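Issue 218. Parser rejects a valid record. Input:
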Amino acid sequence: MALLDLTKSFLYALDIQDHVAVRRLLHPSKFEHRFFPKSLGGFGKEVRNVDEYIVNLDMLVGKFPEGFKIKILDTVEATDAIVAHICTEGMLYTGTPYTNEYVMIVRFEDDKIVSVKEFMDSAYTMSQAEALLSKAPSGDA
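Output the parser choked on:
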């Protein structure tokens, strides 16, 4: 499968909160996820492996009970990577709209994702930090 198609499958699985499908796309032993800029502190962990990344995604379900929509704004394809400029729109459990902008560098090996570097609008993310870092009402956080 072409790298752009794999990236779209990954983003679609994130969009519909299908973490089983996300896991299938990730390399089971080589995968690493990092949040950037580093000033955000990786949200508690600098590097996440597959299991830690899925736990992080599961936690987000409580923050966005109705999910969020991912829109691809632009992509650049390299030999072993896709750079995707995306935006997300959703509603936090607090009722506050959440619209953020990201650049993801997604690297591949043997048709599996081996790394995701996720750059986000840090000023906007910090403006929403209380809701993102606090416990959701369901206690899933």
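Fixed in the parser; the record now loads. The mean pLDDT is 89.
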